[in-house]
Amino acid sequence: MPSTHDEIADLRRQVRILRDRADLRELFDRYVSALDTYGETEPAGDRFAELFTEDVTFTFPIGTSEGIEGFTAFQREAGARWARSHHLAANHSIGLDGDRATLRAQQLTFHVHHDGDHPAGRFDVGGHCVAAAVRTDSGWRLNRVAYHVVWDSGDRLPEFAGARL
After folding, report:
1. pLDDT, position 161
2. What pLDDT is stored for residue 79 in this prediction?
3. What is the pLDDT at residue 86?
4. Sequence-ordered list of residues with C-beta below 8 angstroms from that of 138, at least 6 positions apart, any chain
5. Sheet holding 52-60: strands in order across?
6. Structural contact between residues 103 and 89, judged by C-beta atoms closer than 8 angstroms
7. How far apart, in whole angstroms, are the C-alpha atoms of residue 133 and residue 140?
8. Cβ neighbours for 122, distance < 8 A, ≥ 6 positions apart
């Protein structure tokens, strides 16, 4: 029969796993939300520093970037292509390995064209994101993010014509 000490240690381990999973899910959701609210209330670099390690790597169908500063510039350029965007993530899958984690989430992204380009037009993308995270002194941070397109629909911008997204 397990001792009370063993039961408490097991409960602590289970609580830590549950907390890590909740923290990682929230971290990923904050990342996805930041894509739509980029620069609205504070400098994006400040917001991104709370989400990523300094050496974070991003891989997207339209390009790659490294580091928070690189991603900030990449996001500024990508975001300027659209009047608005809306990102949704669901079905989070989290694998824990001590102070490292892997995440996978289904993602839908809706892009609204600027009025002059394609009035009332949209470009929508469905896919999944695979990310890696590490536990830091400041909590969990993403250090690798890769987005994989499964389908797209709507009016692509001219720079994406013929691109395999």
Report:
1. 54
2. 81
3. 93
4. 50
5. 63-66, 52-60, 139-154, 122-136, 100-112, 84-97
6. no
7. 6
8. 110, 111, 112, 113, 154, 155
| 8 Å CB contact between 130 and 148 | yes
pLDDT tens digits, 51-66 = 999 999 999 888 899 9
Residue 102 in tokens: 């892997």
Token reading at 130: 């695979």
Residue 54, classified by CB atoms within 10 Å of its CB into exposed (0-12), middle (13-18) or buried (19+), is: exposed
Q: Name the helix (H) or strand (E) containing 48.
A: helix 44-49
Q: Which helix (H) or strand (E) holds 85?
A: strand 84-97
- The torsion angles phi and psi of 164, rounded to 5 degrees, stand at -90, 90
Give the closest residue to 65 by CA, choosing from 84, 50, 78, 47. 78
- The helix/strand/coil state of 57 is strand
User: Above 90 in pLDDT, residue 151?
Assistant: yes
Q: Look at the block and give the residue holding tokens 């013929």.
A: 162
pLDDT digits (tens, 9 = 90+) for 28-87: 999 999 888 866 555 555 678 899 999 999 998 888 999 999 988 888 888 888 888 999
In this prediction the pTM is 0.86
Tell me what pLDDT residue 160 has: 57
Structure tokens of 159? 């720079």
